[in-house]
Design a protein that fits this description.
Oligomer: single chain
Number of domains: 2
Shape: globular
Number of strands: 7
Order of helices and strands: HHEHHHEEEEHEEHHH
CATH topology of the largest domain: Lambda Exonuclease, Chain A
Structural class: alpha/beta
Bound molecules: iron/sulfur cluster
Organism: Mesocricetibacter intestinalis
Largest sheet: 7 strands, mixed
GO biological process, one term: defense response to virus
CATH class of the largest domain: Alpha Beta
CATH architecture of the largest domain: Alpha-Beta Complex
Number of helices: 9
Radius of gyration: 19 Å
Cofactor: iron-sulfur cluster; [4Fe-4S] cluster; Mg(2+); Mn(2+)
Protein name: CRISPR-associated exonuclease Cas4
EC number: 3.1.12.1
Length: 222
């Protein structure tokens, strides 16, 4: 079933992307897009970045994870900062850790996150994209992965269901289209803006008000 979803003949999202030479996008762009398409375009098309205490915390967590040596414990090999890509899907990036079960041969991507589990599947989509990369690179089906959250110090198992795979493929196609367009979508102010490191650059309330004013002017102006 996983193979069907990634087959361009069976999946129109992939067929379109493959034919039109869209750019390869980073795995982090998928998570940014799932959070907010404007944030994704600001970061990946306009190279906007603002470090705040949340992004700094996330960076140090990844530095800590990445600095560890590979090791083997109880029949499992732990490889850190593994570079992965899926050329056919147009994605590439780094997996924080890949757990390789030396008995069964199975691989499991693990992503470390600063916060806690979220109601929306942003982190799951990024993790699933990592699994799709590992699948293309190794030819084996990756059944599950895990997210580890610093705030709750808890590990969450993620099963790569057909639904999550389809959602991930859709986001990959949308991100590639967005970044190829060079366009930055207008802001849509919402609850997520409070947690967004780019809120000062984005100015969502101001720009949204400006757009509404122009809309009304267009309706009633000369
Ligand atoms: S401030 Fe809000 S609209 Fe602007 S990029 Fe961040 S989440 Fe998106």
């Amino acid at each position: 079933m996983a193979g069907d979803l990634q087959n361009s003949a069976a999946n129109p999202l992939l067929a379109g992307a493959g034919e039109r030479d869209l750019p390869t996008v980073s795995l982090s762009a998928l998570q940014h897009y799932a959070f907010c398409p404007r944030q994704c375009a600001l970061i990946h098309n306009e190279q906007a970045w603002v470090e705040n205490y949340l992004t700094a915390q996330g960076r140090s967590l990844h530095e800590l994870v990445d600095s560890g040596e590979p090791e083997t414990r109880k029949g499992v090999r732990f490889e850190r900062s593994v570079h992965v890509s899926a050329q056919r899907l147009g994605i590439s990036g780094i997996v924080d850790m890949v757990e390789h079960d030396l008995v069964s041969g199975s691989l499991k991507p693990v992503e470390y996150k600063r916060g806690k589990p979220k109601p929306e599947p942003f982190d799951e989509i990024q993790l699933c994209a990592q699994a799709l990369c590992l699948e293309e690179m190794t030819g084996q089906t990756i059944a599950e992965g895990a997210l580890w959250y610093m705030q709750t110090r808890h590990r969450v198992l993620v099963v790569f269901s057909d639904g999550l795979r389809a959602q991930t493929l859709a986001v990959i196609a949308q991100v590639r289209e967005l970044l190829a367009s060079g366009q930055t979508p207008p802001p849509v102010y919402g609850k997520r803006c409070k947690a967004c490191s780019l809120v000062e650059i984005c100015q969502p309330k101001l720009l949204e008000k400006d757009r509404s004013a122009r809309y009304v002017e267009g309706l009633f102006g000369e």
